[in-house]
Write the structure tokens for this entry.
Amino acid sequence: MRRHALVAALAAVLVAGLTAAFAGFAGGAQAATIMADTFDDGDSAGWTPSGGTWSVVSDGTGVLRQAGTSSDARSRAGSASWTDYTVTARVKPLAFNGSNRFVAVLARAQSATSYYYLALRSNNTVELKRLTNGSSATLATAAVTVSAGTWYTLSLSVAGSTLRGTVNGGTALTATDTQYAAGGIGLATYYASASFDDVLVDSTAGPTASPTPPPTTPAATTPPPAGSTVVVAKDGSGQYTTVQAAVNAVPANNTQRRTISVKPGTYRELVTIPSNKPFVSIVGSTGNAADVVITYDNASGTPKPDGSGTYGTTGSSSVFVDGNDFIARNLTFANSFDEAAHDYSAEQAVAVTTRGDRLVFDNVRILGNQDTLQPSSPGTATVSRAYYRNCYIEGDVDFIFGRGTAVFDRCEIRSLNRGSTSNNGYVTAASTTNTNPYGYLFTQCSLTAASGVAAKSVHLGRPWHPGGDVNAIAQVLYRETAMGAHIKDAPWTDMSGFSWRDARFTEYRNTGAGATVTADRPQLADAQAPTYTAQRYLAGGDGWNPIF
């Protein structure tokens, strides 16, 4: 179990001080993580199930799953003495057995039949409710779209007599009730199966607590406990005020998952996940990727402060991911370089460069213009893999480029407007090493365009040969992807004297106005399709399969 602060001494301090510190959602106390569990260690120690079939399984990462749909089920954790706090969890309903079924998070749980809960119902509502000896009472309700197979972030805050629930950091319910003053947390299903992940209990019980001055950043030489979750908040209500400070606190050669939960805000900083710090997760706390933005504004031609030259393309990256087994979820990475305000000879500006292996980006926005995202690897002889699920990536020229192996699954790939009627850029510039059969796969994605982008003005890609490397033979496949009218009828083009026809560019069963099959659009044969699935791209020699 992944916990941060349930040791006896700290628990005693927290229990004694929570009510006074957070009465009325006010006061000057700093937040504390009371408990966190990501289930990445494969067990559910500390949770007490009641009904259903509970187990830790893989759903992209380790999750706690309740598999039964024939009854109600709960799993509870925490202390009966907890008073004011916020419990947050990612929840994915898998199947509803009938109408008006639900999945939920619990707060101030007295027993398996008495607690407050925030429920996502199959009839497209969210409800804030109280259960008393098995009898329920609705305190507040709102409409929200609920779909099986979709992840939601549920957050339930309790402070004094005030309750507040949110879905994905947006739809909010509030109520006042005095039935329960304290109790633990829980997860629940009602005639439904579901996966639960990233459970976080924070002593900040509500969004309107009075801010406090930022504390001194804890020293990187005092790492958080193994398997823990730490909180980053600009206002000082977490353990750290910058993302990089939290990364620095992860010990070298770490062997267990370390989760950095980032509260809403724009964090203008450079972030590097070093190669000797694997198993790091950076997760936006609200579930809404737009709420947490990590950005910087260097470009290739930006002069370095020490006068040693310019940053170069890769050096302009706002975020470097060199550590293996990295996870990013529910946030935005951006390069905010302003092209109109500068006149550099080189204006490539990278948001993210990845060189680590087995990386997952889930519900992440990656923003830039030219050269937005660089999936790469430590060297041409090394294959590094990354999985992008339900992401949004935007740019104009070569905005996904490099030699890495990358799968884009159900992502929106958006081309920005360069103001041209004939050439508004190139989605990809892959440089896959010729011995690597797998470069980029876009599967079930949507290729969209910003307002004003001319029809038939954007290329799917061109072959990049860094430094004239003849062994860089790009491999790109667009598979079962919806293409807007902005895509050219002849969508592949040459680059720096190298013909696109020598690259490995193919399409398979695409749809939309931009998917017209022509002689200049090589199609993957049906017999080849089983060889070019997301699983095949990512399996490597270790059988890695993060797909969910």
